[in-house]
Amino acid sequence: MKLALSLLSADFGKLRAEAIEVESQVDYFHIDVMDGHFVPNLTIGPPVVNSLRRGLSRPLDIHLMIDHPVTYAPQFDVYADDFIIFHIEAQDDPDKVIDIIAATGAGVGISLRPATPISTLRPYLNQVDLVLVMTVEPGFGNQQIVDNATERIAELSSLISKDSSNAVIAVDGGVNKNNINSLVRAGAEMIVVGSAIFSAPNRRAAIEELIAAV
Ligand code: DX5
Ligand code: ZN
User: pLDDT band at residue 108, thresholds of 50, 70 and 90?
Assistant: First the structure.
């Protein structure tokens, strides 16, 4: 299992310091990019992400919750071990977005809202490197995980095997030490966690507890 720390619940005034504090314990930093249209929240974009990237030694997964990934994906300075993740519900044509992200050199990720059927991903499973299953409605951290999270991960896992895809299964939203094990058992390989770490009195201990729970 790979652990990705969502920086959405960090103090944005000291974003890099907050990330570096726990860098040795996590595999990825997960960055939530929101445009105020695709989701009812606004966060940060390429200028902030690019300068943050230069100061970190862990790769990024850049989660684009925006309507026009074709326009913005090329503006991120990325490396081969980073991922840029777009939503299948975004307005741009998924095939075009996949090509644009692939051209950046980063891994290509696709994500979907909790209400979008897993089967809608099928045409893209052999074209992406990662699938991010949203287990809360995108837009905000610190929400409760949806009831059918493990079923959706298991359904995706079986489609991935059936289609001989190499896509990594990632899960994002509402993960904590009580549900992480069932998500991994269902097939999740990368786990995104935000508030369960940032709201803990001792973040290092909180990460250790998450890892120990699996
Ligand atoms: C929600 C974001 C998630 C979120 C995860 O729109 O995509 O990455 O920050 O945070 P927690 O772990 O607090 O649900
Ligand atoms: Zn996210």
Answer: very high
For the stretch 119-143, pLDDT in tens is: 999 999 999 999 999 999 999 999 9
Residue 59 alpha carbon to ligand 2 centre in Å: 15
Does residue 111 have its Cβ closer than 6 Å to ligand 1?
A: no
Q: What average pLDDT score do residues 160-184 get?
A: 98
CB environment 33-49: b (16+ within 10 A), e (fewer): bbbeebbeeebbbbeeb
For residue 27, indicate whether it is catalytic: no
Kindly give the residue spans of alpha helices, DSSP state H, lying in 129-192: 149-162, 180-186
The ligand 1 atom at the shortest distance from the C-alpha of residue 145 is 14
- From the CB of 61, is ligand 1 less than 6 Å away? no
Domain boundaries, the chain: 2-212
Token pair 């959405």 in the structure block, residue: 8
Sign of CA dihedral 103, 108, 113, 115: positive
Residue of the CA atom closest to atom 9 of ligand 1: 141
Q: Whose CA is nearest to atom 4 of ligand 1?
A: 141
Q: What is the second-level CATH architecture of the domain 2-212? A: Alpha-Beta Barrel (3.20)
For residue range 10-61, list pLDDT tens digits in order: 999 999 999 999 999 999 999 999 999 999 999 999 999 999 999 999 999 9
A 10 A CB-CB count for 206 gives 20
